[in-house]
Every structure is written in structure tokens, then in C-alpha cells.
Amino acid sequence: MYNASTPPHEWQKILWKKQPFPDNHLPPSFLSSLQRNINLKQYTYTSLFKTVLPVTQHLSNTALFLSTFAHLKTGRLDPRVLVYLGSGLSILGFGIYEISSPQWGHRLAQALKSSILVFLALASLAPVLRTLTAATSDDSIWALAAGLFILHTVLADYTPERIRVVRDRVDGESQGGLTSVLSINAAVSASVVLASRLQTDIAVFSLMLYAVQSFALLPVLRQRLQRYPILLFALTCFVSGVSLAALPSSTLVLPLATLLGLVTFGSPAVLVWSQRYKNRIRGPWDPAIPQLNAKKD
User: Fold this and answer.
1) What pairing do the DSSP bridges indicate for beta strands 35-36 and 281-282?
2) Which residues on adjacent β-strands are paired with residue 296?
3) Mind telling me which GO cellular component terms the entry cites (predicted)?
């Protein structure tokens, strides 16, 4: 609305009145209401370091699985040893998961039943999986497995258990749960095509059992341990160390160590450094945000 008390030659923020100023005129008071970085959350290196640990652990776990496949294919790893080690570590992980639960000890029978069913299912499917891709070339298998593992890594759920549960309750449906299921499906599919390149049924069975333990069970334990940063750091160091030691060639140690180092230590530092260039401005000229499906009183 026009203000009669305004001096005749003072610029006004209106369009309906012709004023003695050029169209691109900007008075000194035009940016007086400018606001910069309102409600900006400043991240610290420590908090980002804790956040990136699940990503490092996930990359190390994937590298360890690929190394295990290479050792099985070349015959340097006995499949029975893999079954024993995987089963023992799964029992240990289940114990840690149950101890950290408020009501532990109530899911032992269900876990035992599920484990027996998984054992029987994989044992019966091993002969079929071994010859599943017999008519497919190795190059196609490697490319398909690489694409599936990349998809698995991108879609994996790296959020803590508590945050994921609260988010699902607020949203009404689990968007993170959908991507997590797709991630597990991609990992299992990649494991199937790799297992089809092994020579014996017991090798196929051991690799598929290890895939279930690595890509379905270990992420659940990781999400629970994100409540305890020290335990999560210990798990990440253990998996990373084993993945580096289990590489089939010593020439791969430096690239993998560099990748893990950049992800673990470099990415938080880059994000903290880039915060100084954050410049989000707000003012009275910002467009209104439409409210769709707004509730009426």
C-alpha cells in the first residue's frame, strides 16, 4: 500500500507506481533484510568420522567377500573352513547383538530355526547354482557382478538403528527399508553369479552362506553397534584389517588401503573444510513455498 508519508523521491518497493528511477535501481537499503546461513548446522570432524565408519566397514566387507571368492576359485581356501569360520563369527555376532538388546534371550529359538532353514535351502540349491550360468562367458559374469555390487553399495542403509526406526515411524512407510532390501537383493544376486563359477557344490554352498552372513546379518549388527562408537570402530578396524590381509595379490593392498583411507579420513576433512564456503541467503524476496494437502482447521 502506498505510504503518503514517504518522501516523493524515495524509492519504494512497489510496481504499480511510476517512480523517477531506472528499472535496475538498487537503493542502499535493498539488502538490509538479507540473512545468511540461518539455522546452519556446523559439522565437526569427530561426528563426521563416526558417521563414515559404516561406509568404510561396508567397503571392507565387500572387498573381503571378493577376496574370499578368489581364494575359493583358486583352491587356496577350503570351503569347510569358510563354513566353520562364518558360523562361529555369526554365533559371536548374534551373542553381541542379543546382549546389547534391552530384552535379550527371547529370539534364540527363532534364530536357530531360521539358521537351520537357511542351511537346508542353500545345501539343496547349491547343485543348481553351480551350473546356473554355464552358458555365459566370464566377462559377462564379472561385469554383471561388478554392477550389482556397486548398486548394493550405493543403496545400502548406513543409518543407525534408532534413527532408522524413528524415521520410519514419522514417514509412515520405510523408504530406507526399501533401499536396504534392494541393496541386499543386489548383493545376493551378485553372489549367485559368482558362486556359479566355482567348481564344487560345497564351495558354492560355503560362498552363498558367507554372502548371507556378510550382506544380510552383518549390517544388522552394524546398525546396532552404531549406538556404541567404540565397538563400531573396533568392528571397522577388524573387518578392514582382515580385508587387507586376505587380498589375493599384494599389489591390491595399496589401492584398497588408499580408498579406505580417503573415505575414512579424507571425506570428513573435505566436508568440514567446505563448510566455510556455505552461503545460503534468505530475504523477504524469497518465493513462498506452496503447501500441498494442507490440513484445514
Assistant:
1) antiparallel
2) none
3) glycosylphosphatidylinositol-N-acetylglucosaminyltransferase (GPI-GnT) complex
